[in-house]
Please model this.
Amino acid sequence: MLLRPKLSTSLAVYEGCKVVVQGLANMTDGAPWPWKAIPQTVLQFTSMVERALDQPQKVRDLTDRIVRRTSLLLKINQNKGGSNSELDAYVELFLADVQRIIMRLRIIEKVHPAKALPLTDHIDAIIAGEAEKMQAAFQELQGWFAVHTAYDVNTTKTIVTEMRAGMAGSSNQQAVHISTRARLPARPSCFKGRLNQLSALVKLVCESLNVRIAIMGPGGMGKTSLAKAILHDEEVVNVVQDNRFFVSVEDVIDIESAAKRLAEQLGVGETSDPQSAAISALQPLSRSLLVIDNLETLWFSNNGAAQKDAERFLQRLADVPSLTLIVTSRGSVTPSGIEWTNDQSAELDAISLNAARETFEQIAGRPSLATEFTALDELLTGVDCMPLAVTLLAQLARQKNSPSQLLQRWHHSKTAFIRTGGDHRESSVNVSIQISLDLLSAMTGGTEGGQLLSICAHLPDGLRLPVFAQLVSHFSDIHAARDLLVTFALVSIGSNNELRMLSPVRHFVLKHLPMTDGHLAALREIYFAIAASGPITMDENFSQLAKNVAPEYGNLTSLLLHLIETEESSQELVNAVYAVSEYSYYTAPSPTLREAFRLRLTTHPAWLANCLLNLGRTRLIRSEYSLAMDNFQAACKLYATLGDKILETKCRLLLGRCLQMQGSYEAAERELHVARDSFVELDRQLDAARCAQELGNIYRMRDETEQAIVHFTSARDTFKGRGERLYAAQCSKSLGSIQLRQDNLPAAEFELQSAMSELETLGSSLDAAQCRENLGDVRIRQGDYETAEKLLVSAKEVYVQLGAQKSLANCHWSFGTLYRNQGRTLEAIESFENARNIYGLLGHQNNVAECSSVISKLRNAM
Model:
């Protein structure tokens, strides 16, 4: 059903509103900004709804609430007695609210250019929602008025009636026309990360006439800021002088309105042909620069005639010989019909992490605690260093929010909290993203483009070509949908031709644009197959099979977390979570998947026990000993209840290992002896050999060298006989470390080199890194410091990636020893302090004391 404007009771409502607002224009004659902009802005709204809408009750409510708020603001202006920055801020917020409404309704209007709107729940919800926001703002303003004037809240409720009655007689007076050349917008107060682009564009502007520059990119990338920076650049000012103009077309209805706004800036009076008048005013100028900001609201129109009108006017501007034309627009495709000077470098992307840090610190100040630097980097990386998000986060930080507090809010609320004021694109990340989605919907109806976008939102590593190819049959034209998303800069093409989304956009779409059931089922099938193709054990096939999973690991994790949260547990889901978690265990141990799954398995004891066992393994490798102990103990009890003696005993083996790594050697030895005896009784010789291996680690740590060698050698023989290359190589690594402790460097080097070669072949990155670290210690003792440092740096990188804190602390100790031997005392102290800090967090007090002793001696020797 289409609703078309006609003579009706609603039309009378609009006429009444216009009478009120036209009268208000007289009251603001000569008033400063932002007061003088109120009548024009509200008249623009009332004219639009009168022309395009006939939905009486909803629109009547919205219009009435806008005028009520307008009337109250102007009544306050009469009584406020001078400038008031707080009240001025209310006015600016009000103007932004009305401009947002105009833009959203105009975008909807463009779907049906013949002055008609579809009666849909979407439009209904937009109008009703905006009316509610206006009512809430009106009530807030009533409270302000009661506090700051002699009126109480009840009195303010009569203001609208008084204003209408008082101004009815002035309806025949002509509204004041304000037509002076507007001042340029201010120079960006914080402008980081775009200096190279700024320099290149300034050079174009200053060295050539008739330059045409398009600044493109997603919303929130700083396109307007870059244009403003060009306008205010000293070199540009010297060349162009006062003939610099800036016109925002964010809230205009058509190209005629844009041309009229430009003509007004050029000092042209009322004219029936504002386009020609503006061109004529520009022609005589020897040099001029015009920025048209937010062109997308005119350019991205499904009304071909309107877009053609915009194209023709841009062409006419581009033909002015002395004019430099700059346009900013969302999207990645420059407007057609013009040869753009910078066509190869027109699109802005995110700024660097360094630039994001500088932006944040310039606005909010430098964090005072070292821990806050880490939180800040994680926060900025989390929003993909999107300039708008970085700026708004910094402004929130000025309100006594630390980076770590903001990071917590990001984890909890994502983009919803990144806002500083009203619902405007420059003060809310969500509003900025919604504008792009509204443009997409207006142009396409939001069908397949939106559906593909929702799929991409579940894939943080990008929609890769093999998966894209499998989705072709689930769309009528997936390639056209992809092209639309690229055109609107909602996705970008990655280095491997994958479709990528900015993190803030991705999280917004996840919340507001769910996948269809059919597409979710397709994605589920595709990614379950990828998970099944990966490795689940560390053997000679691991490296090859890992190639199937590695490029999709982030996508697998994201999709599985969604499925864990939204669907019932099934054997398929259990298998997929297990496969991806096992791959993660050997490459980048993360408890995320299994921890989320654990909470959903309370009615499946066997699945829960397996999940707890493997979650404990992951916690153990990350040196999270307390959590690992809890997981192993809980799994052990479940297996005992289920009557699974083998897995119950495996839990005891891992408990022993966990106790050993915490330095509780006696308790660990008891657990391991019990486990080994049980495995022998169950005829599990391989598992018994693993117990012997862990007992060897205890004896090695207690300097019971002979016992350690016996256990490692015996276990290695068993492993080799059973073809268990990983465990055999681990035993060789341990035997090499014993030789190192005994200062038998040739034997140590032989064992460690052979173990490292085998472990690298198998893909066991942590064990191989530990070999490199020990080989670094060998080189230190041999005086080959350069090789030692390279080995230690390589090992440290792996420990950081895997989160292996105990190994990382040991590596810092080795760095400290290296630097001490080289006479690099300050670096040595720093390394020993790093080691001490980690040992302290892990509860290894003996290691903490050793570090403190060494640090004290180094400082005393300085």
Summary: Residues 623 and 806 are 6 Å apart (CA to CA). The mean pLDDT is 84.
